[in-house]
Amino acid sequence: MKLLIVEDDSSLRELMQRALTEEGYVVETASTFDEADAKVSGYSYDCILLDIMLPGGSGLQLLDHIKHMQKRENVIIISAKDSLDDKVYGLEHGADDYLPKPFHMAELKARIRSVLRRGRTGGNLTIEYGNVTIQPENGYVEVAGKQMELLKKEFDILLYFMQRPNHLVDKSVLAEAVWGDHADQADDYHFVYAQMKNLRRKLQAAGADIEIKAVYGFGYKLVK
Fold this sequence. Notes:
Number of helices: 8
Low-confidence stretches: none
Mean pLDDT: 86
Number of domains: 2
Helix content: 40-55%
CATH class of the largest domain: Alpha Beta
CATH topology of the largest domain: Rossmann fold
Shape: elongated
CATH architecture of the largest domain: 3-Layer(aba) Sandwich
Strand content: 15-25%
Oligomer: single chain
Structural class: alpha/beta
């Protein structure tokens, strides 16, 4: 799961990044309107934590831009500007939640889990495809009722595909989603191939009736 924190307060931004990274998220940050706009235009995120008051523009303008691009990101507005008009505007223009400052990190984490669950799993705590069950919140995977042990990145890859069955996923999109936007600076995708090889081997060994198939020249697709 990849998050973008859009926050100009460096202390709060670093605190949020550290807390959410410890939760296992891939976390990126932006401190200005222009930096945030460039990131949401060029990359995809599972959830954006969006401050309203930003150097160079408003977070509500950025929210409008996200929706204009028809992107599917979940958005939680996080702002000390506790205006009812701003809250109503944000929620009516596509924000999924609104969390006023100051807040506890435990509440922030709970809000993120909630919007991700609603957005990707329709409110269910687990995702099932074939005889494979995955629980995003605790990193648990079962194949035919038996637990399967995966490394962190293997789990992230499987979760990404379980949320998108039968969708063709380009290797560069997968790398960016699982490893962050620094993945596009790599000269090749050997790190993707290595993790994918291990995951596919483990699924087969566990008796999974699903498969992440390689589509030559394009990427991968999860099929039954």
